[in-house]
Design brief:
Distance between the termini: 39 Å
Oligomer: single chain
CATH class of the largest domain: Mainly Beta
Shape: globular
Number of strands: 16
Length: 280
């Protein structure tokens, strides 16, 4: 169960960017490789981060070590451009991470951060610690905190719908934390995505499970990557949704596309529907 709270605070921005992908697809990095091999541009590394891949997770061990010119500990951050998604009717960002850093580190943007933003002040900046997450959109807007169980990974999801009224939703493990009117359409005007692990006043140990983003798939379409066709890539994520759902269990916002009969779960009936559109 989540507990969401609202307060005021100062926001950290995000940075520039590198390569992208073709319009109409979803970018996925399953954390089974080092980030640069997975398509990310290295932004910063300092204070001797210890990094490795294990059991399909990218792991950051960020210790408090002597580091000339730096007052904090380890830092490991990456970036990509979102230019190929500019002008789309919708956008989602989803990531799964387990951090063991204390929530007191959030004030300095640690132990993990995930941000999307553009050159004209539209930002969604998330900080995730062991048992608390924070969303900051703008210095003039309320900041939202959410508390959750420590010691397990959690799925965070941002959804944006662009139109006459621009809207946003933030979910953790499929449960709505907050939503409302967005400051503007996104991605737009030089958009980028940046994420990192960081230690500030204490060591950090982060396990990243996946990072995914792109167009929001049409409900019940079977087309996870919005590529106007249903194939093996969609099957890989349909399988994931079916493992995480079942009879009378909410399929969650990240699996509405796999809920072929619209009854709120992903089960054998939906599998039959998926088979009917596979290859189409």
């Amino acid at each position: 169960m989540l507990r969401a709270m609202v307060s005021k605070a100062v926001m950290a921005g995000c940075v520039l960017i590198s390569a992208a992908i073709a319009r109409g697809e979803v970018f996925t990095w399953e954390c089974d490789s080092f980030p640069v091999a997975g398509g990310w541009g290295l932004l910063q590394q300092f204070c001797v981060p210890i990094l490795w891949v294990e059991d399909g997770q990218y792991i950051q061990q960020l210790d408090m070590v002597e580091c000339p010119g730096k007052e904090q500990g380890g830092h490991d951050s990456y970036r990509r451009t979102l230019d190929d998604f500019v002008g789309g009717p919708s956008f989602f960002l989803e990531w799964k991470v387990e951090a063991n850093g204390d929530a007191s580190e959030i004030v300095a943007g640690a132990p993990t951060a995930m941000a999307v933003g553009n050159s004209f002040g539209i930002r969604y900046t998330f900080f995730v610690a062991r048992d608390r997450a924070k969303l900051n959109r703008d210095n003039l807007l309320p900041i939202v905190f959410a508390d959750f169980e420590a010691g397990v990974p959690h799925v965070h999801r941002l959804e944006l719908v662009n139109g006459p009224i621009n809207l946003f939703w933030w979910y953790i493990d499929g449960e709505l934390v907050t939503n409302g009117i967005a400051e503007g359409a996104f991605p737009s005007n030089g958009p980028r995505i940046t994420w990192r692990g960081k230690s500030w006043q204490m060591p950090a140990f982060n396990r990243w499970d996946c990072i995914r983003y792109g167009d929001i798939a049409v409900d019940g379409s079977g087309d996870f990557d919005s590529a106007d066709g249903v194939g093996l890539r969609d099957w890989r994520y349909f399988e994931e949704c079916s493992r995480n759902s079942g009879i009378s269990i909410d399929a969650g916002p990240g699996c509405r596309w796999a809920d072929m009969d619209g009854d709120g779960d992903v089960d054998l009936v939906d599998f039959a529907g998926f088979q009917g559109v596979f290859g189409g």
